[in-house]
Amino acid sequence: MTEPRWLDEREMAAWQSFLRAGSRIGRHLERQLKEESGLSHQQYEILVRLADAPDGELRMTELAAHLVTSKSGLTYQIGRLERRGLVRRRTCESDVRGVHARLTADGGRALRAAAPGHVAAVREALIDVLDRGELDQLAESLGRVARRLEEGEAHTGTDNTPRR
Amino acid sequence: MTEPRWLDEREMAAWQSFLRAGSRIGRHLERQLKEESGLSHQQYEILVRLADAPDGELRMTELAAHLVTSKSGLTYQIGRLERRGLVRRRTCESDVRGVHARLTADGGRALRAAAPGHVAAVREALIDVLDRGELDQLAESLGRVARRLEEGEAHTGTDNTPRR
DNA sequence: TCACAGTCGTTCAAATTCGAACCACTCATC
DNA sequence: GATGAGTGGTTCGAATTTGAACGACTGTGA
């Protein structure tokens, strides 16, 4: 194997900033949500996806594709949310294997209650720290990064791989 | 409470890209490291910090400040690495409470063995997807974001708060 | 219509993570 | 030098995460 192309100083700076920002923001949001709404960020995202879904419900697999969990992780979290009455499970009529998850009225309320604080935290941590141009640039750059990886995930053996 | 300032479309795009890129890259690296080197990203970072340390060793607290774990998480991972002989612990002579962590020869070898593949993965996932200008912009923007949050963490009750 | 490869979601055990409680110690003050 | 607030790291239990294995089912092609 030939000598690898190490990161030069500027590349390293970008990488480190990305890493640090990612983890700090993650912590920031996690704490805020847990404290003010008793939800994990993971759970909040699930509720959002369900609320945004066209029919108000989603198949487990679709849900997992949007989120960052493994299939089993999703099962766990949905179970948790169901126990709290925020989400309900329903077997899919066209495919008995399938399961629809749907927001309950309580779930909707919980989401509406949590949203303002969460958005404020996102603003505080990221959005309001950057100007318009920086935001657009970020969306453009990281959007490309995310898209590439999502495509590439199709053929790996990971548990919850979308495999579209 | 007044109506919160929701995110407009462009802000949302930036936020979503950031989230997705972060988690996808995390998974990407985690998998690559685990497969090719048997290390978690967390562990890899620990080894890097120790290797870069001026005296080849660091206090647990210093280490925790750089990384993203809680104090207890660090104790756990260092224990793990120690069991594998990659790291050694030594009580600090100036302060009996303190503990120095230091890379062993094996640890150095493990790091050198893991580094090329890891760097390649970072390039593939992030660095080589962006051009020079984008990289600099990213470093600038997210650097600011990270710095702000790190400052703000000083007075929160989190476990491993750096508290400098 | 009969395999049969692939899909869906769950279950399982193992690994990791976190915060709170804790113990031993240090340091500034009295 | 005693005292008390604060630090540094570990330990503990609970929550979460993951991949592998599983059981049930689907859809396709012979």
From TrEMBL, chains A, B:
Pfam families given in the database record: MarR_2
Domain HTH marR-type, residue spans: 11-147
GO terms, biological process: response to stress
SMART domains listed in its UniProt record: HTH_MARR
GO terms assigned for molecular function: DNA-binding transcription factor activity
InterPro entries referenced in this protein's UniProt entry, alphabetically: HTH_MarR-typ, MarR/SlyA-like, WH-like_DNA-bd_sf, WH_DNA-bd_sf
Coiled coil: none
Protein name (record): MarR family transcriptional regulator
Natural source organism: Streptomyces nanshensis
Upper lineage: Bacteria, Bacillati, Actinomycetota, Actinomycetes, Kitasatosporales
